[in-house]
Design a protein that fits this description.
With 177 residues, the chain is an alpha+beta fold. The chain has helices at residues 41-45, 58-72, 159-176, and strands at residues 11-15, 18-27, 30-38, 75-76, 79-80, 97-107, 110-119, 126-134, 142-149. It has a seven-stranded mixed β-sheet with strand order 1-2-3-9-6-7-8. Strands 4-5 form a two-stranded antiparallel sheet. A hairpin with a 2-residue loop joins β2 and β3 (30-38).
Length: 177
C-alpha cells in the first residue's frame, strides 16, 4: 500500500544563478523553508532579538545546519552549490568558503547559533555547534538562514482507494444499464 502523505523533496530557490534558499528541508522529521541573506542581524531580521529566530535551542540549530549541508549545499543540475560555495546568497565575496548561520539566541550584541560551513572544493562540509557574531556587523562570506515552517503537506489518496472507487463507479454504471 502506498503512503497517505505525499513526500516532497527539497526544492532549491535559484535567483540569477545564486542559491537564495530552499523549500521543504527536513529537520528532525519536520519540513521547513529557508532563505539565505547576508548582512547584519538587524538588517536581516528587522529586530535582532531571540524571538526573531525560528529555532530556540542549539540542538535544533545544529540539526538545521546539518540539513543544509546534506540537502541544500549539494552539486545538482540546478547548480554546483557544494563545489562553488560563493554561489550562495550572502557569500559572493570569496570562492573558498561560505558560513550560513542558524541563530537561536542573542546575548547583548552577540548572536549565538549553529553554523553550516561549506568549503569549495572539499569532499565534505561540516557544522559547528555554536557561533558568535556581533549583531551590528555584516561579515564577508557569512549569511543568515531564515527558517519558516513549510506549508502543511496535502494528503494524497492511496492508489488502492482510487482503484476501489473506480471499480465501484463501473459497477454502479453497469447496474443502471
Amino acid at each position: 500500500m502506498l503512503p497517505l502523505i505525499a513526500s516532497a523533496t527539497p526544492l532549491l530557490q535559484i535567483k540569477d544563478g545564486m542559491l537564495a534558499g530552499a523549500k521543504n528541508i527536513e529537520v528532525n522529521g519536520k519540513h521547513y523553508d529557508v532563505t539565505f541573506t547576508g548582512g547584519s542581524c538587524t538588517e536581516v531580521f528587522g529586530t535582532c532579538t531571540s524571538s526573531s529566530f525560528y529555532f530556540s535551542d542549539f540542538d535544533a540549530a545544529q540539526a538545521a545546519s546539518l540539513a543544509l549541508i546534506n540537502q541544500v549545499f549539494i552539486d545538482s543540475p540546478a547548480g554546483a552549490f557544494d563545489q562553488y560555495s560563493n554561489l550562495t546568497n550572502g557569500c559572493q565575496a570569496y570562492g573558498s568558503y561560505c558560513y550560513v548561520m542558524t541563530p537561536v539566541a542573542i546575548d547583548g550584541s552577540v548572536v549565538i547559533g549553529g553554523m553550516a560551513m561549506n568549503y569549495s572544493g572539499r569532499a565534505r562540509s561540516e557544522t559547528a555547534r555554536m557561533f558568535y557574531r556581533n549583531s551590528d556587523e555584516a561579515f564577508v562570506n557569512v549569511s543568515y538562514a531564515r527558517w519558516t515552517p513549510a506549508p502543511a503537506e496535502v494528503p494524497e489518496p492511496s492508489s488502492v482507494a482510487l482503484l476501489a472507487i473506480a471499480f465501484a463507479g463501473m459497477r454502479f454504471y453497469r447496474r443502471r444499464r
